[in-house]
Design brief:
The chain is α+β, with helices and mostly antiparallel strands and 675 residues long. The chain has 20 helices and 22 strands. Helices cover 30% and strands 16% of the residues. α6 (117-124) packs across α7 and α14 (467-478) runs parallel beside α15. It is globular, with a radius of gyration of 24 Å.
């Protein structure tokens, strides 16, 4: 199929003038709801004997009744209707008529009218942003508001908490052990409560570090004489999910060797509760985030398992933490035993303002890299705590609080036998530094852009009506100069078409993708194809004068001279990031593949801060060699000598190939095998 034939987001109002359209794009209804004082969090705090799921169904009831009258259907948080309701066409949606208010379609997939200054001004008032966001951010937010107006819970957060603010004190762009270490440092610092969500928990070195942190937290709680409440969620799909999507996990189950969480007797001062969540068939709980004491939130790309992946995590503070807290309650949905103790205590800024770098209470010596990091380490470390027993060798640099080679650091992500193929000669301005201690900054506008799970294996257009997908589409639509995307996979129709449209109107699109990532699953019918297949087809869709604006690169490890196919499980990349015009960034859990666009539950945050975006892009360039390995304009990678990659995996056609692809896809979704 030609990508140009895809019609997601096609305009039906291109000939309609603003005068004809009449009403603005931010309705009175969504304006009123975003100004409501009621959220799932506040309502649950008032009625902790209930459940967030029940409360959600009753909240904003007047708005719900209006929606039900107009749509003739039903919906709830994170649930996309898998069967068509009256008036919809399950096989072809081209005749579906959008609901129109004052002449303007409220379906954000159909919006082609540019937001006016009045729309942008009104959108500013629909969020607690602290300062006026950039026009780019506001245009994207207008599209998200139009979605929430139509699908109230499609952002998996109470609408008054959708638009918020906060700071990014630290980001980690590194292998899984570094991110797990920061999780552990935050866990042991908890005093009241923790909410930990991951797609897949697998007995591993990573999970055992989390377990040890929980045991240490229990010991500290005992010394203080005050218990800590810990709620955890994961997705280990099971047949019982066909009747109950969320299931409490008993101790006997979590002690099995595939999970190996601590015994209750090993964490006696922790009130621990665990929920397993999956929406069959494909509605994966793919979210990965943690909230500690309603003070900080970590949003990450990695699961709690060992994989040879480069990953990304952001450490957030500010009112955005309350938005993620609300999302956590909606994900949990069930009653809590006991409830989280800080339900009645919204986020409070730290005394004396936000702290950055090593002044932040959650920073540790593990977060120090490079020459400056080594200097700081010496200033903080005790005399009897040397960095290493022996002076560092010439090929060793300071990474994650100790001297090691870059290859040793990358191999800590579960591939100890991979060898470097490039000689490292770092310079002070280009040092390998996986921990980004962000420059101090004021609170900046943020929007939580999530999506709920959808179980049906079909990919209808209505499944795109969620905050994540609309934010991505809006970023591609409103970009003026450039878009950067890093993702393990890129094959979902909407993002492919969105990138091509952006390129055709003059926007440079840079894509960092991982060659061979989950090829077996991505090659299945309806999944969009492998990364190599998509690259060739995308370039094939462009005219010669357009091709220079599409820049595709295969992920390459910092110690490698060329990309390594992900099937080798040596140097893989699992980062999920979009940056638009160097101003607005979207970071979190969602991949640019069909699974994440149409099916999985995802949690992402959209941030309006050019300096943070600059620091992210700089760290990605320093910590990878991806920028050195661009594909040709025919979509094929060749090295400096003109040789193509020799380790590409052949995907079999026919029945056997489909069976292998299904097995690979299921394993990848559940995190059990594959890259």
């Amino acid at each position: 199929m030609s990508f140009s034939s895809v019609t997601e987001g096609s305009a039906v109002m291109s000939s309609m003038t603003r005068k004809q359209a009449g009403a603005g794009l931010v309705s009175d209804r969504i304006y009123a709801i975003t100004h409501s004082k009621e959220t799932v969090t506040t309502a649950y705090a008032s009625s902790p004997g209930s459940s967030p799921g029940r409360i959600m169904k009753k909240l904003y009831r007047d708005h719900q009744r209006h929606k039900l009258k107009n749509r003739g259907g039903h919906w709830s948080v994170g649930v996309h209707r898998d069967v068509p309701t009256e008036g919809e066409h399950p096989k072809s949606e081209k005749h579906h008529k959008p609901r129109i208010t004052g002449g303007v379609p409220t379906d954000p997939l159909l919006l082609s009218v540019e937001p006016t200054q009045v729309d942008l001004d009104r959108a500013v008032e629909c969020g607690d942003f602290g300062r006026r966001p950039s026009d780019l951010f506001l245009r994207m937010y207008v599209d998200i508001l139009a979605l929430i107006d139509r699908e109230l819970w499609s952002g998996v957060v109470s609408p008054p908490l959708l638009g918020s603010k906060g700071v990014v004190t630290m980001s980690i762009i590194s292998v899984i052990p570094d991110i797990i270490q920061h999780h552990c440092d935050c866990i042991v610092a908890a005093r009241y409560e923790i909410f930990l969500a991951t797609n897949f928990w697998q007995a591993s070195k990573s999970s055992q570090k989390i377990c040890q942190a929980l045991k240490e937290l229990s010991r500290r709680a005992e010394r203080r004489g005050k218990r800590v409440v810990v709620k955890a969620m994961y997705d280990r799909a099971h047949l019982k999910m066909f009747t109950h999507n969320r299931v409490f996990v008993e101790e006997e189950e979590w002690l099995k060797e595939v999970v190996m969480l601590p015994k209750r007797s090993e964490i006696p001062w922790i009130d621990f509760e665990l929920v397993n969540y999956h929406r069959p068939l494909l509605g994966t709980f793919h979210a990965k985030f943690m909230i500690v004491d309603r003070k900080i939130a970590l949003v990450a790309s990695n699961n709690i398992q060992d994989r040879p992946n480069m990953e990304m995590m952001v450490h957030l503070e500010g009112p955005i933490v309350d938005s993620l807290y609300d999302t956590a309650l909606l994900c949990w949905s069930k009653p809590m035993h006991p409830p989280l103790p800080l339900l009645n205590d919204p986020y409070q800024p730290p005394e004396g303002g936000y702290k950055f770098g090593m002044d932040n209470e959650y920073s540790t010596l593990h977060n120090l890299d490079g020459t400056k990091g080594a200097e700081l380490y010496h200033s903080f470390a005790h005399q009897d705590q040397p960095i290493n027993d022996t002076p560092p060798k010439a090929d060793k640099v300071f990474i994650s609080g100790r001297y090691q080679t870059i290859t040793e650091h990358l191999n800590a992500g579960d591939q100890p036998n991979t060898h470097a193929t490039v000689q490292q000669k770092p310079t002070p301005t280009d040092e390998y530094a996986p921990h980004v201690l962000h420059v101090a900054h004021d609170e900046c506008p943020m929007v939580l852009v999530n999506r709920g799970p959808r179980g049906s294996p079909t990919n209808p257009r209505r499944a795109l009506r969620n905050a994540q997908d609309i934010a991505w589409l809006a970023g591609l639509k409103y970009a003026n100069k450039k878009v950067f995307i890093q993702s393990p996979t890129l094959n979902a129709r909407p993002v492919v078409e969105g990138v091509l449209k952006a390129v055709r109107r003059g926007v440079e699109c840079t894509l960092y993708i991982d060659v061979g990532f989950n090829d077996g699953g991505e090659a299945l019918p309806g999944q969009g194809g492998t990364n190599e297949q998509v690259a060739k087809r995308m370039y094939g869709e462009l005219d010669e004068h357009e091709k220079p604006r599409l820049r595709m690169f295969w992920y390459t490890g910092k110690d490698q001279t060329k990309p390594i196919n992900a099937s080798a499980k040596k140097r893989n990349c699992h980062i999920k990031l979009m940056v638009i015009d160097d101003e607005v960034g979207i970071v979190g859990n969602g991949n640019q593949d069909t699974q994440s666009w149409y099916h999985s539950q995802e949690v992402n945050v959209m941030i309006d801060n050019p300096r943070v975006c600059e620091e992210w892009l700089g760290a990605i360039r320093r910590n990878q060699n991806t920028h050195l390995h661009e594909l040709g304009k025919d979509g094929i990678y060749r090295d400096a000598n003109g040789n193509v990659l020799t380790d590409s995996v052949h995907i079999e056609s026919g029945f056997l190939g489909v069976i292998k692809g299904i097995r690979s896809s299921v394993a990848r979704v559940r995190g059990r095998s594959g890259p």
